[in-house]
Amino acid sequence: MDKEPITSNGLNKLKEELIFLKEKKRPEIVAAIAEARSHGDLKENAEYHAAKEEQSHNEGRITEIDDIIARANVIDVTKLNNDGKVIFGSTVFLENLDNGEKISYKIVGKDEADLKQKLIFFQSPIGRGLIGKNKKDLVEITTPAGIKNFEIKDVQYI
Predict the structure, then answer these.
(1) Which CATH number describes the domain made up of 77-156?
(2) Residue 149 — pLDDT band, cuts 50, 70, 90?
(3) In which residue ranges of the chain is CATH 3.10.50.30 found?
(4) Quick check: 60 and 45 in contact, CB under 8 A?
(5) Are residues 148 and 98 in contact, defined by beta-carbon separation less than 8 angstroms?
(6) From the CB of residue 12, how many other CB atoms can be counted at a distance below 10 Å?
(7) Which of 97, 99, 100, 95 is nearest to 152 (CA)?
(8) Segments of the chain assigned to CATH 1.10.287.180
């Protein structure tokens, strides 16, 4: 069983989701199943089948989160020396040399990745292209949208 790197923030969010699914969602689904059962014939009872399907999805996600937490290797970058190197959990400030756009990304684990939040998976093309590089480095990264050229302006462990 491989350890899965995760930030402490990512682990906390998973634990919150797990509590929600177990303590709030699970009882709601059980109540919905009981309500649907009270309507009689289960063969043609769409509410019952929808509730059972939702229960299956919920229990699957609970199992998935339990597994992730069991394999979690929490990396707290705030406790590491900031030597300007891009590592898992660091926030990288970049300048796109092709268009001058300034952007920042935090390098995170699979379950935390969310491009809208500027959280990128460390195994993604940009994540792989940045890890191990240093502040002031020029980086060429091949992405699905083509080759991008960046300068690493700063690396922070926040």
Answers:
(1) 3.10.50.30
(2) very high
(3) 77-156
(4) no
(5) yes
(6) 12
(7) 95
(8) 4-75
The angle formed by the CA atoms of residues 42, 48 and 52, to the nearest 5 degrees, is 120
Please, are residues 7 and 89 in contact by the beta-carbon 8 Å criterion?
A: yes
Q: Which helix (H) or strand (E) holds 99?
A: none
SS3 track for 3-67: CEEEEHHHHHHHHHHHHHHHHHHHHHHHHHHHHHHCCCCCCCCHHHHHHHHHHHHHHHHHHHHHH
H or E stretch covering 74: strand 72-75
pLDDT tens digit sequence for 125-141? 999 999 999 999 999 99
Which residues are 141's β-sheet partners? 148
Q: Which CATH class is domain 4-75?
A: mainly alpha
Q: How far is CA 57 from CA 21, 52, 61, in A?
A: 10, 9, 6
Pick 53 or 77 by higher pLDDT: 53
